[in-house]
Structures are given as C-alpha cells and as structure tokens.
Amino acid sequence: MLEFRGVSKEYYRGLRTKERAFNAVNNVNLSIEPGEFISIIGRSGSGKSTLLNMSAGLIKPTAGDILFNENDIYKYNDKEISFYRNEEIGFVPQGQSLLSNFTVLENICLPWFLYEREGDPSSRALELLDETGIGELADSYPKELSGGEMRRAAIVRSLINKPALLIADEPTNDLDSQTTAEIMKLFYSIAQEGTAVLIVTHELDTLSYSTKTYSMDNGSLSLHE
C-alpha cells in the first residue's frame, strides 16, 4: 500500500556547502501493507519524524519515490496531495494538537468538513469516542482534558475519515504506563480492522504490539531483531 524506494532527504546546516550537507533520511526502502502495525525506534535526531512527515506528504524527499497504491504521491499537485492527506492518511502529531476553541466533538469532525462530503460525521465521531472510553467528553474543551484524554481525542480525529494509513509520532510520550498500554491496544485493534499503522516511539515496552519493528540510525532504516 505504501512503499519507499531509495528515499533520502538532505538538509543543510548553515551555508549551503557540501561539508554542511547531511541526510536526515538516507536511502530508505520500506513497504507497508494493509493491517500491518509498524513501529520505528531510534534516538532523537535519527530521522524518524522526517520519515513520517514524508509518508504524509508534508516533506518532499530529495531522492527516491514514495508510492501509495502504486502512485507517486510527490507527483501530485498541491490539491491532490492535500486530498491524499485528508482522505487516506490519519496523522497524530507529537504533543497537544487539538484546537482550544473547539469542543472535542468539533475537533474530531473538523477533517471531515475540509472537503465536501455527504452526511454528518457526528454519529461516527461519538461512536469512536465511546470505543476509546471518552464518550462523555464530547462537549468538553481541550483545557478540561488530561494528557491521555487529549491523545485519545487526537487519535479519534485521525480516524474520522476512515484512513487507509494511520501515522503517529510518539503517541505515548509523557503518558503513564496504564494509559500507554490502553493507547497501544487501541492502535493494535485499529490494525486488526485493516488500517495500516505506522508509529515512531521511544517506548520499547510497546514493541510487542507491532507486527514489525525497525530501527533508525543516522537516517538509515533496518529491521529490528
């Protein structure tokens, strides 16, 4: 479903000279199938977040191809790649990402209304909130939620358009062990229903939920044994 073919991303520090150039992602090959749960581990600065952002069509690679259902996403025009992110990808960024002036329900429904669609997403949103154990918080505002509750709401928001691929960057960062386990079980159940899940994590205890784990070091990706 999603395939990286020899993908690199080059950045420059300071002046644009060869001595200051470095590859945040270096010649990565990776394929993800529907229902797979992929975890990527590695030190800070190893290129993990850059890899996720390229998967979501947010950062263009310097070299290589990223294919979604055999289509090169970086050959899309701006309108097409924006629709790809909205329709096919659910993205859970690091930290708090809910809009403070919107209720939980309004936050979750927002991606639905970015493009013209038939129907009302509220019933699906409420069902997903119930499934994640925060159904009673639909009319609450982000400032009234705990860190774990906000993370669950962000995950629900990422699922509102029934994405083929769910991407999450450090989804359990700064959460207690019980909440971490609950969120990882949620990702596992999402994968069991056929959605591919791709996460970056520092939590080694969570790797048992993954079907595959990769390590990233200095931009290079390798299968973790």
Tell me what you see in this structure.
This protein has a single domain (about 30-60, about 75-225), classed as P-loop containing nucleotide triphosphate hydrolases (Rossmann fold). Helices cover about 30% and strands about 25% of the residues. The chain contains six helices and ten strands, in the order E-E-E-H-E-E-H-E-H-H-H-E-H-E-E-E. The protein has helices spanning about 50-55, 80-85, 105-115, 120-130, 145-160, 175-190, and strands spanning about 1-10, 20-30, 35-40, 65-70, 70, 90, 165-170, 195-200, 210-215, 220-225. The strands form two sheets. It has a six-stranded mixed sheet with strand order 6-7-8-3-9-10, sandwiched between helices. A four-stranded antiparallel sheet has the order 2-1-4-5, with helices on one face. Helix 3 packs parallel to helix 5 (about 145-160). The radius of gyration is 18 Å and the shape is globular.
